[in-house]
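Q: Given only this backbone (590 positions), what sequence would you predict?
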């Protein structure tokens, strides 16, 4: 693994430290994250809801709100049509609850992943219209649904699209015509389209940057903000931030700009165990063993979100929707238990696919492989995306796993830093039946006969765009430090930079000439260390899942360079600084 020390402007960092009253290390970390002035630093640290943008900056927000309020006042039926992943389910739940609060006649529709696939589909729209709906609001889907939008208009359905996925690139779509028409942007023929890239002319670039990373639930929240027409800090609006946080973190949304503000306050709400909490969230935390704990981004991503996702992956996401919208504690516990059971089933299926996929990978010559394109008739389409992420983590190649059925393949793909997966699929679009997604994650469908050519072309594109050097893992280091600098007060101050996640990673610090005083394996193959630098104080450290290094790369008495994240470890009423090791390299042999 290659270590890259951030090239900070020391002069700017020193100036920021002095003018904003920040510890020099805190100032350097902020400069590394693009925060270079006092106002920016104060806003970042305050993370105040009042800094959220006016939802009216979105091009079609006025049209969307007007149409929704008209439907409510006339008693017309509205259907919220959402995606089946966590981002879509939380966004659908949020809008459904807000519309109910406003007195709407509202229904919801989430397609079945296995039988209907992703996004708007024609049959569903026709059935929704036949059931009496005149207005459909999409959540986390619809931005490339050209023919479906045209169908909706033809059968008397007004369609409001809220989405954050890549805008259509393979064909010229119909533009929305109104006074705020978006020039040179291809859009479906919908009544209104809300998307983080579609803002009114004149919106400041800084504001554009702050909203550009909103996920599906984030866009749904901005619509809710406009519908409720209250201050951003209003308790009514804040009560939905638990849902926003679940969806944003699960969808790997960047924890920058408005996302960071929403997630920070949402984590506070998720950590609340009082009666004010949503029954479904309390039940979900109980089955996950998180009651009474401070909820962080990691707990959302690895414990809460997978349970919400499980129903949409293996069965139907309606179960998760019901959990997040119910007011009954008994129903919430029953639904949470059901999701927990399905999640365990998902884990078992995942391990089977994981083992089979790894066997295919081991047959490949990694020296010449640009992308891993794997397929099987035995894989479950609801789980392959998770396995694709694990393959990327182990083999560090853009990866697509394809489930085959009747000559048709449904694929989920994940990428690595440096390669835009969506652009790669655009370049292979003539081989695909359909596709959509993001820079790092996407889904597609393909004829089985086209898979060999797709594998070769995608691999060639990867090699052409990032080359073999793009397969070298890199670890960014924010700053060099000495261990004696890391007192409890400084480490506690570092926590003010949280919440961490995509775009705002945990601080990674580097130190050299560290002696390993003691080492042992604890728990589930974790490496527990006692470290000391140049005869100074000793620090406890842990390297998760690195127990196999003991006796090989790690021996008592060895001197190493290390990259780590410091944190406060509390136990039995005591607390001390502990180092979470990210990587180590030997400096001197034993």
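A: Predicted residues:
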């Amino acid at each position: 693994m290659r270590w890259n020390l951030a090239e900070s402007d020391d002069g700017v960092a020193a100036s920021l430290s002095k003018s904003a009253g920040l510890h020099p290390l805190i100032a350097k970390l902020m400069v590394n994250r693009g925060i270079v002035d006092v106002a920016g630093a104060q806003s970042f640290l305050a993370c105040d809801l009042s800094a959220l943008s006016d939802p009216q900056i979105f091009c079609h927000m006025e049209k969307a709100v007007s149409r929704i309020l008209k439907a409510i006042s006339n008693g017309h039926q509205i259907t919220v049509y959402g995606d089946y992943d966590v981002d879509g389910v939380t966004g659908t739940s949020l809008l459904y609850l807000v519309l109910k609060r406003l007195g709407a006649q509202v229904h919801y529709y989430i397609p079945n992943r296995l039988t209907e696939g992703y996004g708007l589909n024609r049959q569903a729209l026709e059935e929704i219209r036949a059931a009496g709906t005149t207005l459909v609001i999409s959540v986390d889907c619809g931005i490339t649904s050209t023919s479906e939008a045209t169908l909706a208009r033809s059968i008397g359905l007004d369609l409001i699209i809220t989405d954050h996925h890549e805008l259509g690139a393979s064909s010229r779509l119909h533009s929305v015509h109104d006074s705020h028409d978006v020039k040179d942007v291809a859009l479906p023929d919908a009544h209104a389209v809300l998307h983080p890239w579609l803002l009114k002319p004149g919106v400041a670039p800084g504001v554009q940057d702050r909203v550009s990373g909103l996920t599906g639930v984030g866009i749904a929240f901005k619509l809710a903000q406009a519908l409720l027409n209250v201050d951003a800090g209003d308790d009514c609006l804040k009560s939905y931030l638990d849902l926003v946080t679940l969806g944003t973190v699960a969808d790997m949304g960047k924890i920058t700009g408005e996302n960071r503000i929403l997630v920070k306050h949402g984590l506070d709400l998720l950590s609340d165990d009082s009666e004010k909490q949503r029954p479904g969230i309390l039940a979900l935390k109980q089955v996950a063993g998180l009651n009474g704990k401070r909820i962080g981004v990691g707990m959302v991503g690895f414990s809460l979100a997978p349970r919400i996702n499980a129903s949409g992956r293996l069965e139907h996401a309606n179960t998760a929707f019901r959990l997040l919208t119910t007011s009954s504690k008994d129903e919430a516990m029953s639904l949470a238990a059901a999701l927990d059971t399905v999640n365990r089933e998902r884990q078992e299926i995942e391990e089977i696919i994981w083992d089979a996929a790894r066997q295919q990978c081991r047959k490949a010559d990694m020296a010449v492989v640009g992308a891993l394109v794997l397929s099987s008739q035995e894989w479950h389409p609801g789980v392959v995306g998770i396995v694709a992420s694990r393959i990327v983590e182990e083999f560090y190649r853009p990866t697509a796993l394809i489930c085959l059925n009747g000559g048709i393949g449904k694929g989920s793909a994940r990428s690595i830093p440096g390669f835009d997966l969506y652009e790669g699929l655009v370049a292979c679009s003539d081989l695909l039946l359909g596709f959509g997604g993001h820079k790092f994650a996407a889904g597609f469908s393909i004829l089985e006969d086209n898979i060999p050519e797709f594998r070769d072309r995608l691999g060639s594109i990867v090699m052409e765009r990032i080359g073999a050097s793009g397969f070298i893992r890199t670890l960014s280091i924010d700053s060099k430090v000495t261990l004696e600098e890391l007192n409890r007060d400084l480490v506690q101050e570092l926590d003010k930079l949280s919440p961490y996640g995509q775009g705002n990673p945990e601080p990674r610090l580097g130190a050299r000439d560290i002696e390993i005083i003691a080492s042992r394996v604890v728990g589930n193959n974790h490496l527990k260390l006692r470290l000391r630098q140049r005869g100074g104080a000793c620090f406890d450290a842990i390297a998760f899942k690195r127990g196999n290094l003991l006796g090989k790369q790690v021996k008592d008495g060895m001197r190493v360079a290390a990259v780590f994240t410091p944190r406060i470890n509390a136990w039995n009423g005591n607390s001390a600084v502990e180092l979470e090791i990210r990587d180590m390299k030997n400096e001197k042999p034993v």
